[in-house]
Structures are given as structure tokens and as C-alpha cells.
Amino acid sequence: MSTQDITAEQFNDTINDNEIVLVDFWAEWCGPCKAFAPTFSASSDKHPDVVHAKVDTEAEQALAAAAQIQAIPTLMAFKKGHMVFRHSGMLPAKDLDGIITQIKDLDIEAALKEQAASEAE
């Protein structure tokens, strides 16, 4: 599966309608973003069960602001609609693979129950 560009209008449906979604916030003028793009694209081929979405922060400035993007590239990962990972800066392919493996292995329901319990204390 290849990467897909998404807009603000598509963002919520994309993260809520898919099991696991990685979102790469980038811009055309950003050198590190361009350097990370082939790694992100290769990951989409290696993990076809994970949606690899890209948000152009220049075209989608309101979405980037709502996501509190302060540096690019920024990678966000969602599982069942919940953000489970966020990182600003480039990631080597092996690190990205490791993160995807951890997200696949994550029991999101148990993590949410644990978070709710700790917030109630």
C-alpha cells in the first residue's frame, strides 16, 4: 500500500475508520521531510495493514495548528482512533519498524483502562 495524502476533512475519518494509522506532517520546503519520505514510503510497502497518511502542513495549516505541530517532520501514530505515539524529527527505518511492531502489539483497551484509573487517583 502506498502513502496517501489527507486533508483536514479526511483526518478524523482516517484515524477513526482504520485500526492503525501513521500520519507524517511535512512540508515541501523541509529538507528532513524530504529525507524521511522514502523511509515512510518503504514502510507503507512493508506494512500494508497500516495506513500511512501524509499531511502537507503548508496546504493544511489549520490542521497542523490543531495538531500542535511545531516542528516537521512530525510523526503521529493512532490505534483505534487514539494517539499512541508522537515524534518530531526523522526516524531511521529500523526505529520506525520497531514503533509499528510495538503499536501492533499494544492492547489499546487495557492501556486506556490503565490511563483512566491513574487519572481517577
UniProtKB/TrEMBL annotation:
Keyword Transferase: no
Limits of the Thioredoxin domain: 1-105
Annotated keywords: Disulfide bond
InterPro entries cross-referenced by the UniProt entry: Thioredoxin, Thioredoxin-like_sf, Thioredoxin_CS, Thioredoxin_domain
Entry annotated with the keyword Chaperone: no
Family classification: Belongs to the thioredoxin family.
NCBIfam families per record: thioredoxin
Protein name per UniProt: Thioredoxin
Species the sequence originates in: Mycolicibacterium arenosum
